[in-house]
Amino acid sequence: MTSSTPPPKDRGIPEATVARLPVYLRALQSLTERGIPTISSEDLAATTGVNSAKLRKDLSHLGSYGTRGVGYDVEYLVYQVSRELGLTQDWCVAIIGAGNLGRALANYGGFGSRGFRIAALLDADPDVVGLGVAGLTVRHTDILEDVVVDEGVSIGVIATPAAAAQGVCDRFVRAGVTSVLNFAPVVLNVPPTVDVRKVDLSIELQILAFHAQRKADGNRLGLLDG
């Protein structure tokens, strides 16, 4: 779904706003699927769990201000947010690591509808290379650089053990990949021109455990006070 529309000029959108745009997009796409043509800022804010004033300010960075008494045109707002996120063209993704996590990512069907094409799945284990996963044949990491060039890979996903992650990242960078999603439990060292997003599932679980513990402590105190 490549578009001939040129990318918007950098308008200095705050990082916090950028982080909320995918949340807005997911809610808007759900509205589109339900056939809802317009939505007020208050209702969209309630759907996304964001303060309505903050939401209006976020969307104003995109040049979208809604219409008084009508709200936002959902379909057009989907386009605006998608354009800002760079989703009006397809992005090719290569996943390194064909273990349980890598296979789960390759099998996830939601990437295609959001502008991402899983172009390759690679692994260093000869027992895994050659297996079929989600319509892909697992290839050996020895040809990582060739795959990046041949497939036009823009985003590299690292789903390897921690010990292998930095080496894989270095190879991605040398091959010209400047966007990396890292699932390995390690901090990667990259040049300032490379963007890395880290997803640490164990940290997320620990944060949830913290909140669960706080709720449990509050319940115990409530019982004691009662």
Please tag this protein with its features.
single chain, disordered N terminus, two-stranded antiparallel ribbon, Tscrpt_rep_Rex, repressor, 226 residues, 10 strands, Rossmann fold, 6-stranded parallel β-sheet
What does this structure look like?
This protein has helices spanning 15-33, 41-48, 52-60, 74-84, 100-107, 144-151, 162-174, 201-225, and strands spanning 38-39, 72-73, 91-96, 116-123, 132-133, 136-137, 139-140, 155-158, 179-182, 195-198. By secondary structure, it is an alpha/beta fold. It has two domains: 15-84, Arc Repressor Mutant, subunit A (Orthogonal Bundle); 91-202, NAD(P)-binding Rossmann-like Domain (Rossmann fold). The strands form three sheets. It has a six-stranded parallel β-sheet, with helices on both faces. It has a two-stranded antiparallel sheet with strand order 1-2. α7 (162-174) links the parallel β8 and β9. α1 (15-33) packs antiparallel against α4 and α2 (41-48) crosses α3. It is globular.
Question: Which helices and strands, and how do they pair?
Answer:
Elements: H1 15-33, E1 38-39, H2 41-48, H3 52-60, E2 72-73, H4 74-84, E3 91-96, H5 100-107, E4 116-123, E5 132-133, E6 136-137, E7 139-140, H6 144-151, E8 155-158, H7 162-174, E9 179-182, E10 195-198, H8 201-225
Helix pairs in contact: 1-4, 2-3
